[in-house]
């Protein structure tokens, strides 16, 4: 059994606890909650069904506890680098919320440190385990789409008013490109590897709040394949549609179209357990559509979403029985592409990627 300490009790932690609870090889033993007292603890209130676990106020208490094998960091982006570095220096395996760090230089440093110390550093790119992404990945691997020419991945919403919180403050790693864009770009890297060029529009489209904090983006990743491929990652907060486009993929043998978001986050909020047979199952009305080169159309059942597989893989990687799926070097590449997207938007040009 791998003893787990979770750092932070905010909203992000709610996306980790259900899978730490459900994974056979993991056990929650410690929580860092800086403002907790003997009589008042958010962790004890939210996760009392997982007791006994120890709530501490100081990070050092976790770092110096030899029983803790895995540290899960769910705090704000600006804290990721320091917390992760200290954990790795103290011999702890780490799961870190995306984005790994606000800079690719920091990300590469942490990846090198984990490798040097023979430790696992896994970035929570759980969207690799979305049912819709698993579906489109399967179609590509099976060759049903042929050579891919265009791949559009979107995460649009209608939020005309900014939310309060650190994600919309002018700080390193803030803005929607670091927040949602890191997921979409990670999917591109996972499917197609490193692109050759990048072009982007990154902006505050609402013109509200701090105008230096982006709320929308359109990023084009250009691949110089035999059939040239453009991967488009997009997000808007002014998309007022009942059915939001998620994927639009075209290739030499067919196309795939999918609307609606993966169900797992909503199911967590509704209290559905990760091991429930309904967890991760898409509604039939939201299934995607495949059109072949002879223009015949068929409905494609959405593969069951499996965020739990992220944590199962982490456990197996710690136990040396399976390679790490989301390695920190691919996460560092994602951050580098985000940096270049910001540069492209600022300079108004397409940038070569070395």
From TrEMBL:
It comes from the Eukaryota. InterPro entries: Gfo/Idh/MocA-like_OxRdtase_C, Gfo/Idh/MocA-like_OxRdtase_N, Gfo/Idh/MocA_oxidoreduct, NAD(P)-bd_dom_sf. The keyword Transmembrane does not apply. Keywords: Oxidoreductase. One of its GO terms (molecular function) is nucleotide binding. The keyword Oxidoreductase applies. Residues 2-125 form the Gfo/Idh/MocA-like oxidoreductase N-terminal domain. Residues 138-352 form the Gfo/Idh/MocA-like oxidoreductase C-terminal domain. Belongs to the Gfo/Idh/MocA family. This is NAD(P)-binding protein. It comes from Wallemia mellicola (strain ATCC MYA-4683 / CBS 633.66).
């Amino acid at each position: 059994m791998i003893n787990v300490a979770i750092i932070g009790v905010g909203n992000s932690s709610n996306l980790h606890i259900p899978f730490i609870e459900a994974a056979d090889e993991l056990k929650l033993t410690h929580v860092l909650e800086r403002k907790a007292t003997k009589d008042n603890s958010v962790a004890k209130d939210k996760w009392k069904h997982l007791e006994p676990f120890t709530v501490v106020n100081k990070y050092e208490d976790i770092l110096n506890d030899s029983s803790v094998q895995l540290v899960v960091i769910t705090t704000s982006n600006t804290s990721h680098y320091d917390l992760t570095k200290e954990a790795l220096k103290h011999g702890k395996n780490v799961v870190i919320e995306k984005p790994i760090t606000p800079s690719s230089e920091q990300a590469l440093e942490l990846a090198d440190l984990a490798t040097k110390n023979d430790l696992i550093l896994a970035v929570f790119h759980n969207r690799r385990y979305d049912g819709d992404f698993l579906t489109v990945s399967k179609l590509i691997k099976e060759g049903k789409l042929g050579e891919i020419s265009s791949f559009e991945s979107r995460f649009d919403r209608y939020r005309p008013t900014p939310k309060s919180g650190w994600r919309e403050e002018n700080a390193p790693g803030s803005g929607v490109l670091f927040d949602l864009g890191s997921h979409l770009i990670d999917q591109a890297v996972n499917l197609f590897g490193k692109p050759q060029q990048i072009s982007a529009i990154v902006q505050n489209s609402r013109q509200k709040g701090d105008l230096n904090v982006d709320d929308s983006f359109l990023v084009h990743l250009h691949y110089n394949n035999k059939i040239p491929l453009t991967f488009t990652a997009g997000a808007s907060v002014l998309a007022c549609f009942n059915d939001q486009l998620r994927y639009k993929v075209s290739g030499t043998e067919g196309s795939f179209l999918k609307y609606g978001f993966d169900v797992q986050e909503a199911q967590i909020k509704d209290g559905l357990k990760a091991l429930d047979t309904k967890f991760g199952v898409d509604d039939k009305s939201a299934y995607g559509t495949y059109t072949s080169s002879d223009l015949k159309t068929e409905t494609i059942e959405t593969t069951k979403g499996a965020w739990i597989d992220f944590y199962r893989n982490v456990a197996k990687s710690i136990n040396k029985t399976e390679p790490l799926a989301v390695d920190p070097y691919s996460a560092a590449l994602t951050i580098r592409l985000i940096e270049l997207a910001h540069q492209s938007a600022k300079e108004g040009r397409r940038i070569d990627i070395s």
